[in-house]
Every structure is written in C-alpha cells, then in structure tokens.
Amino acid sequence: MSYTRYVMFVVLAAGLAAAAAVLHLRTEGTSLIYYKDKAIVLVYHDIRQMPASEEAGASTLGADRLEDHLMMLESRGFQIISMDAFAGFMLEGRSIPPNAVILTFDDGYESFYSDAFPILKRFGATASNFIVGISSDLFNPDAEPHLTWEQMRELKAHGMGIYSHTYNLHRMVPADRTGSEEPALTARMHLEQKRRSETEPEYRRRIFSDLTFLEKRFEQELGRDRSLLAFPFGSYDELVLEEGAKAGIELFFSVEEGINVPGSRIVKRINAGEPYMTSDYLWNRLTAFF
Ligand SMILES: [Zn+2]
Asked: Domain NodB homology spans what residues (predicted)?
C-alpha cells in the first residue's frame, strides 16, 4: 500500500469508526431504561393554538408545546401506551414496556378534538379525556366549548379513551362543615330548602347516582368500556372511593404526583399542562420520579 493510500485508508477507517460510535450512541439513547414495571401518567387540560403574544390561561398549554413534549418523549425513548394497556397493568398484572407513559386530559374541552387530536395522530399516540358529562349533554354558550358525543365517537374510533370526571360534580357547593364553598364530590352540602346539611346517606346517594348516571350515558353514546374516574379538583375521601367502587369505578385518577405501580386503585399523575411547561421543563420534572 502506498503512503497516500495508507493515509486514505486510515482516514476512512477512522471515519467509519466515528460513524459507528455515533450510531451506537443513537441506539443507546433510545434503548435507555429509566424504569420498568412502573408507569408515568401525565395530566393536561386545555390545549390551544396560541400566538406567542397571547397570554395563556392557567392549565392551558400551547399546541406547539404539546408537540415538543411528544417529540421529547419519543426521542428520549419513552413509550406512550393506551389506557387499556395501563388499566390491564394496574389491575390484572399485564406487562407493559419500560419507560411507559400514559397521556390524560381533563375536563372534556373541544380543543382536545380540534387541537390536540391532529397532533396525537401525527405521533401515533393515544390519549384519554376525562369529561364532565353535563357539559357535553347541555350546550352552554357562555362556557368554553366541550366535546360533543359525535366527536367522542370519532376519537374512540381512533384509539382515544373517554372516561368520567363526574356527570355534574365539577363545581363548588356551599358546605356547612366550613361555611365556605367546597368541591361537590367531597362536600356535605348545605340544603337550602331544608336548612340543614345533607346526611351521610343523602351524600352517598348523591355521589353514587352522579357516577352511575355518567357511566350509563357512556354506555348509551359510546358503548361499553372500562369505568375510570378522575376526581374534580383532585378532591376525594374514603366515602368517594366506596361509592365509586359500588358504581363500578376500577381506577381513580388523582393529581398527587408520582410514578405508578400495580395494586393501587388510586393513580398518581404528573401535571404537564401549565403554559410555561416546555419540553425541557417536563424532562427535568420526570427525572425526579425515576
Ligand atoms: Zn377538572
């Protein structure tokens, strides 16, 4: 081999080695296992196309930010799994891939269909929405638009999940206990006409009938599915869990932050939906849990 040829060979070999190293790093990057037999559930609320100048409300994330989150999850090797796979993991011991992430959205805003759904489809990702039944049944021109049953049928046909955020308990009610407004799911309501607090049996019946009514509406409009509940305002107590279980609720979604392991009926969720939450922010937040 002449000297020139030898140099060329060395350069080529070094180049190949460098390329192989880069390739190795790439595969390494996506095959990293942060956690196994555990799952992270993210919670979002409203997603909207927003010009940078527009002041975003609390719990509203720009559509571009959602896209950044999905890109980060994909490039860092997280696996977005369906709600069904997650419920099977939590309740029936079914296995899930490492670095499993579940996407959830609360409150049933129409923006889930108009703004989030197209992005989710592009990434081949599934997500679930916890809707407030009455907001989809009764149109309120004064409120932010909510999902229609027709839109929900289309979402479900594309693998998205629709679950309960109560039928009509996503509100504050006057409570005797403290003399102030409390979440309707956990408050002992002050009964105006009877001039007293509701009794425990009355309270239990109010909760049970609300939860079973929305499950009935789901069955009528969307067909049978698992019964899952996200607590409005994250508020719950033992009685809610008891009445929920009676109403057939299998998993309860809280806003306590953490990572999930099978056996618990209360699901922890990490908030990813505030306007300032960039993909770097989310990544740093996630690393606190594994
Ligand atoms: Zn809510």
From this structure: 99-290
